[in-house]
User: What shape does this take?
Amino acid sequence: MSYDPDNIFAKILRGEIPSTQVYEDDDTLVFMDIMPRAEGHCLIIPKSPCRNVLDASPAQLNSVIATTQKIANAVMRAFDAQGVTIQQFNEAAGGQEVFHLHFHVLPRYENVKLRAPGQMEDSAVIAANAEKIRGALAEA
Assistant: This one.
């Protein structure tokens, strides 16, 4: 399968679709999920094109996983979480819906289930959660 440069994350990278950004470096971008399954649910993507783990270069994987770790620690602090779930899906049969490599980071608490998928969150809530994560990153 080939990379589709018109996928939604590629459009976010080009600024064609708005997103609530949390963190950016030379190689990665972090933004909030608009249909979060937990407060603070965010996504980490490489800035360069790749479909998923199966075609990513070692450099892309190194950058994305380093940012994922940084964000996971910030999310834990920002939401006083007891744990964190990191999800990554590959190809449609593996659950992937957007075909640009991405990692989900979700703060977790004992005995609290994830929300059902597909529920849009209010943009003010998303913005407030992004600010909490930015604050935790600044304190690190």
